[in-house]
Write a structure and sequence with these properties.
The protein has 214 residues and is mostly beta strands. Helices cover 5% and strands 43% of the residues. It starts with a helix and ends with a strand.
Length: 214
């Protein structure tokens, strides 16, 4: 039955719908030669000082079930094309770029991915199973992934999570309690600094979390 459902979703005609997420740019990174890369739309873009733009990688949309009946008539469970919405980028210790997905509507839990991008080569999925990724950084033990709403943007729960992905794929939640709508992550000297409640006027905070040694 699962195989039949998957085939039905993939083959069904679907039209793009409004995602409710701006095209970006969302985040930026700089390579070892000083060139600037930004995530925008469904792509990772390289910029030059003169404003020239080169697409380094494009990320695919996917067809997922609608969470409820939609205004265009799509029934609950019907096919909806979900854009990737690459929202975060950082350079890894190997010189590759790592790009995290927020995903567009319907923002399903567990469907966001982190891509590894080597310019000149097709992007590869580095890790999956995330929800609404908004930032990435490298720190002790591996890659740290910040989720703005760990149960999904349509869940009504604003609790986020900071998750560490170790080099062999194992992962662990570093922090979650008290992370209300976290939006930014920086790691310095073994400490993770996370901004919270970025959309709450006068209520945002910066929280710090000492990280265990690798």
């Amino acid at each position: 039955m699962a195989a039949v459902l998957a085939a039905t979703l993939v083959s069904a005609p679907v039209e793009p719908i409004e995602t409710g997420v701006a095209a970006g740019p969302f985040d930026s990174a700089v390579d070892r030669r000083g060139r600037v890369y930004v995530t925008e739309g469904d792509a990772l873009i390289r910029l030059t000082p003169r404003g020239r733009r080169t697409t380094v990688a494009s990320f695919p949309s996917r067809v997922v079930p609608a969470p409820a009946r939609l205004p265009d008539g799509t029934p609950r469970g019907g096919p909806v094309r979900m854009p990737p919405v690459p929202s975060a980028v950082t350079m890894g210790p190997d010189g590759a770029f790592y790009v995290g997905e927020l995903t567009g509507f319907p923002f399903p839990p567990g469907r966001a991915r982190v891509w590894r991008v080597v310019p000149g080569h097709p992007p590869q999925v580095y890790a999956g199973g995330f929800t609404a990724v908004v930032d990435l950084d490298w720190g002790p033990g591996g890659l740290y992934v910040l989720e703005i709403a760990k149960h999904g943007l349509l869940s009504g729960d604003r609790t986020g999570a900071l998750v560490r992905v170790e080099r062999h794929g194992r992962r662990a939640t570093v922090a979650s309690a008290g992370l209300s709508a976290p939006s930014g992550l920086t790691i310095r000297n073994g400490v993770a600094y996370v901004t919270t409640c970025g959309d709450c006027p006068g209520e945002g905070t910066v929280r710090s979390f000492p990280l265990p040694s690798a």
